[in-house]
Write a structure and sequence with these properties.
The chain is an alpha+beta fold. It is built from two helices and four strands. The protein has one domain. Strands 1-4-3-2 form a four-stranded mixed beta sheet. The longest helix is centred in the middle third of the chain and has 12 residues. It is elongated and about 50 Å long. The N and C termini lie far apart (36 Å). The relative contact order is 0.27.
């Protein structure tokens, strides 16, 4: 199993929430989709395990392009606030 070290420039750092998204009143399906995506947890907790060294191993559902299937994180990496993207 190939595990990828969190480098500070991966999917967790690219988290972006858009507050400027408008949904027309007649598009209830889009409103429901937006609400569901906002309420979804950032990580599936059933895929997170703690290693013997105290690090967290997050098992991916699908391999990344480089073939890695897991992400190895320090516990503090989950509690820090993701950086906002500059536009």
């Amino acid at each position: 199993m190939a595990a990828r070290e969190a480098s500070g420039a991966g999917p967790l750092d690219a988290l972006e929430t858009r507050s400027d998204v408008a949904v027309p009143a007649h598009r209830r399906d889009r409103l429901e989709h937006r609400c569901r995506s906002l309420l979804r947890p950032p990580l599936a907790l059933e895929r997170v395990t703690e290693t013997s060294g105290g690090q967290l191993l997050y098992q991916r559902r699908r391999p990344w392009a480089d073939g890695s299937v897991a992400l190895l994180l320090e516990p503090l990496e989950l509690s820090t606030r993701p950086r906002a993207r500059s536009t």
